[in-house]
Design a protein that fits this description.
Number of domains: 1
Helix content: 25-40%
CATH architecture: 3-Layer(aba) Sandwich
CATH class: Alpha Beta
Distance between the termini: 51 Å
Number of helices: 11
Radius of gyration: 19 Å
Largest sheet: 10 strands, mixed
Order of helices and strands: HEEEEEHHEHEHEEHHHEEEHHH
Strand content: 15-25%
Length: 356
Amino acid sequence: MVLPALALLVGACAGSPDTPAAEVGGATTIAPPPADDVADEEPTGSAGSAVTAAPASAGCGAGTEVTVGGPNIMTVRSGAIDRDVGFHVPAGYDGATPLPVVLNLHPYASPANVHSSVSAMDLKSEEEGFIEVAPQGIGAIPYWNVPGNPGLADDVTFMGSLLDKVVEDLCVDERRIYVAGNEMGGQLGLVLACEMSDRIAAVATVAGVYLPERCDPARPVPVLAFHSRDDTWQLFEGGLGPGAFGLPQSPESEELIADIVIPSVPDFAEGWAHTNGCTGELTEQRFSEHVVHQSYEGCPEGGEVELYVMEGVGHAWPGTVTGLKVEELTGPSTNEIIATDVIWDFFESYAIDSAG
């Protein structure tokens, strides 16, 4: 049964739907230093030519009090709606050194804090020193307005307002803002690659593929995807599978889901390769016993398209402890690949060249 399984998912993770990601270790509240004390930091990588040191965002030295090493909440107003957003600031944050940002977007019907735990992105934030931002979709059964249906919340506009707030309040590297999403969250991330390519350095999606109807990015956006041939929710060959049909729905989400056209995974990859200007063939290399790594050749620098195709895995975020606890809902997971680690390694290779 789906509803008991959803309760299991929430019960497996700390917190409530209204709280941000679970706290990691002892948290300390700090007020960052004034702007005069802010120093630049070299970025990890580039999506084009070599880039200069990270410029300070408006939030560097803004004096915003945050809890480092633990959860925080900010309120973002968009479309006449106030929306609370959880975010995790790593213990090493000093308010002076610009840090990368990962927008971590939950799947359909999952609270944001639950997805943060399932993906272990809050733990990765501590380990690697980036800020995780985990917004919540609209509705009692939270969703993302992937196709941009009029009459529903405009989530692209919301994400723009959210990034504005993050940049104003926190010390971040604006060239290294990434989106990681699960299922419907990953689909919205792909929409953001089309609509906000000037702000999004790279996108990763797990168990959620999509080809936006209109996509004309100002620059190629690197795309990384994970999908299982045995996913019974979003089928490898395209469309929804039986696993998705038992999910709870509201009138708004029912109409929304009907409007999301889910391509086959090969068509998805080919479509993004075309959008990014890749001219070569799809190549394949065995990653592990049940995982194959695929990538397109001939992509422009900063326009790479990569996939990890799994076998024997369900609609799962692979490689996390909490993910293994909720297999009753998502189907089998795997430890052959740790998606969160691979995603961060992928993200680290890209930064938007401010001169480009």
